[in-house]
Write the structure tokens for this entry.
Amino acid sequence: MKKLLCTAILALGVIMLMTVGAYAQMPKDKIALQGEDSFKAEMFKEFSDTIEDNALYVATTGSDSNAGTIDKPFATVQKALDTVKAGQTIYVRGGTYNALNSFKTSGSEGKYITLRNYPNETPFLTCTTGTNGAILLLNGCNYIKIYGLEIGGHSAEQAYGILINDCENHIIISNNHIHNLLTTKPGENENGEANGILLFGEGKTDETSINNICIENNNIHNNTTGWSETLSTSGNCKYVNVINNTVHDNTNIGIDFYGNAKYCSVPAYDQPRYCVAAGNTVYNSICSYAECAGLYLDGARDTIFENNIVYGSMYGIEIGSEELQANYPVKNVIVRNNLVYKNSCGGIRVGGYEKKKTGYVTETKIYNNTLVDNGEGEGGYNGEFCFVKCNGVDVRNNMVYKSSNKYPLIGGDLPAAYTLNVTFNNNVFYDTNSSDSTYFEYKGSSQEGIDAFNTFVGGTNYSGKPSFNSDYSLANGSYGIDLGDNGVLNDMGSLVDLGNNYRAIGTVDVGAFEYQDGSKPTVTTVSTTTVSTTTTTTEATTETTTSSVNPTETTTEAQIEISTVDLTAKDGFSPSTATPAAGSISVEYQSATDDYLLKDTSDVAAATWTNSFEPITSGKVIVKGYATPVIAKAAGKWAFVQVKGTNKAGDSADIADLASDASKNIALRTGSSAYTSTSDTIASTKYNYEFVFDLDAQTVTLTVNGKTLTHSIDAQSISSVVGITANSAVNRNLIMSKPTVGVPAGGTTPTETTTAKTTDATTETTTAVVTEATTKVTDATTETTTTPDVPSEPHRGGGDINEHQLPAIVDGTDASNTKVIFDNAVSGKVTVTVNFDASTTEGIGALLNLVRKDESTGTVAYKDTGIGLRVTAKDGSVIFDFGDSTGASAGKFVAGSNTVVFTVDTATGEATCTLNGGTTVTKTVTGVDNIAGIKVNKKKGRTLTVNSIPYSVEGGETTTETTTETTTVTTTETTTETTTVTETSSETTTEAPAPEPSKNVKGDADGNGKVEANDAALVLQKVLTGAKVALEDVATNAFELLDADNDGQLTAKDAAYILQKALDSTFTMPNEK
């Protein structure tokens, strides 16, 4: 039994390793994809299991004399490849096909040839004859897709899974399982070679390069490669995208980009270029006769390594130059947002390794990587980082941590003359074994202590112990939060971290992960508030209440209702006569935040994004949205949101702009030179703007983050809104929402807000519109709010709180968290139900938590109670706690509708939490004397919508306070208050019974209606011991539901699929297709 249990634990460990790559998966819209626009669009197309018309079929029961139909399939893959025409799909049925095969025909634009599995079946392509060659050879064939195949079991002196050689282009290799490619001559002095996938570019011109390639979501493992690499891009190749693959347990390099090896006889083209490796997980790349890396670039250029996880190999990532080639060096490489840990020889190594025989690595950027416990084995003297024979390397915002042997944090044994112009700034180094927490051996000398290192390299770096979560993301309060340099954002592509969360627009954190609990104190703000008071009567009793508040000196118009106009968007650059370098200017849509990133690294032009509409020539025009200057460079003037049209002379002109002036202050610019300025220096801040143009009066009012600026204009018409980076400076990126443009609806003027709530068919409403000045200091000791009087009757039923203000929506791009405060703080045994929708389960950190009313200092503040939900993993797993990663597991929230029920006894401190009808968990808190509302926590990339918050209390005192507080820096805030008079003395609330769990959820072994990690463990236990699972008692088709791979048997592979489904709800198991 012990042996069986150990086997089960080991098998579960294998399953976990199989799914380790899921965390590194990177959405394509956040990857710096390379290639032609048409090919990028092709990469976004999903493979469908809908059977294509006019397809060819291959089956082990077929015959090559057949017609290749589903009823009369071919017997061999080669026959189908000989027969296929552009635009056709070849479906290969399950079974083993023992042969080497080659494509003979190309597809064309829009008519790819697809070789794939028949849906829910696994064909195994192999070769057991010992013949040299490739199981699938593409030689001169273009517009090809290969999907869903198992390829392997090929042993020969030269054994390849998929080989692309010659001048192929427009190839997609997706979701294949490639394994056990074995060279029969793998030794140190032998020349055998084997590759899982090899791109071998021998073409002699740029036009004959291998180009526009996507290799994605493949599992490549257990290959004996000899001196070759597992997944290799070599020679004349460009626009190669290697994304979201899992590459493991291979006897040499995992993923490689290899140039300057004379594979192409023209040196200028003998380099992979414009490539990206993103979202890959690489582990256990180990060679017995040479040092190797999990992820390796050697002799290539213009390549990005981003958001990869590399561990358990000899080196994690290496940017090298094995060949001495002065004219075509390694250059323009970016290594960012990678997690590199527990690699035996070192973490990230940069440069040639020998004084005379190897080349230099130049113009390379190493940004925001996390390196942990690398270089602990033989060769550990190379350190977490190693820099030798390189020139022009920028090393910034990296987290470097070592907890074991006293090997250096940075190594490099060549003299200083061979390591030139390497800069270190805003990195965090920590070594538990050094007396001064840091120890370096760099440029042939030793430096003990961060001060000595900073003096030696002339940089600003830090030493402090980070606090990691289990996935090496930064924990609450960790050293390294907000210590980064925002200058890296220009080279951050889609501005996401390794967890696919957006980097802070404030100060970025150090390392691969951006800390995701973003609650921080705000500054004193002045907000304009519109209050609408509603009186509701019940039980046929009518009461009329009129409430009014005298306005303060600060007044504002109520919101104008507008009718929007249609916009036509177009990106480009300015001036149009310039010739910016290829790829230096772009406008990218960011789906997670529904906005646009204007990227600009050109020194001759600016990126522009123009939203045009039919010219408006009279009346009022409203233009609003938001814009975030990602980099506010030192140069002063910058009009980054421009409203354009014609002036009175009929000439095209800037009418009014959101800009910075010569003193770098936020301003309204009219014409080309008139500035009306604030005192706020431009920063990497989200600016919410609203222009109100009066074309009849020839005036414009700009409200930006609560401040109002007014000026006269010279305008005959308005016809476009333009976002623009800068003509005068490089690296001024801009994030911008699609603007809203409109005119007053039906000529209406500012109107009062009326809110009515109907109870028992009797309602009478009185509305008062007020403008009040409210000053708030969050997390400080003062708060002054002027509000109308409200009754002191406590809530004791299950009614909604401030129902007319909900839903409370907190978008990941918002500047702050949002508090929703009860009409009355309550004490006693309190039950709070929060019904909320989540756009995604991503965004690790606080989700929502209860707050209490604190009057200890004589002023009112709303503070965290320590009672709430914290997200601990991307699958939506949460704990019942706030700010403490050791809380009890409360299950998972989902992308969609959720319900969480909190109970708190303010007398005893006992608190419980039940999420989505799951297990109730408890904790004990202190110092919570009342419950006054909830706080909804922002997370980048996630929108959380709270729809209702019914609450009740048994006994206890109730204090009165009604407000909804949005802790947003300089923003417009709306507070809505409801006064309710109830004539009845009792109220009964009846909850509908919870629906029974579905008995037909695929993968749900315990029958609770959800797929969770426990289901995978139960299936594995059944595989190993035959133990019955709960689903078998309630579902007659339990076997079909648990047979995740649809192969007719229950194996550990099914448990692996179920675990992947539990970790990623968007994953589709084979039996779900």
Observations:
- The CA atoms of residues 166 and 478 lie 51 Å apart.
- Helices lie at 2-18, 37-43, 77-83, 450-457, 1013-1025, 1031-1034, 1038-1042, 1052-1063.
- Confidence is low (pLDDT under 50) at residues 1-23, 518-559, 747-805, 955-995.
- The radius of gyration is 32 Å.
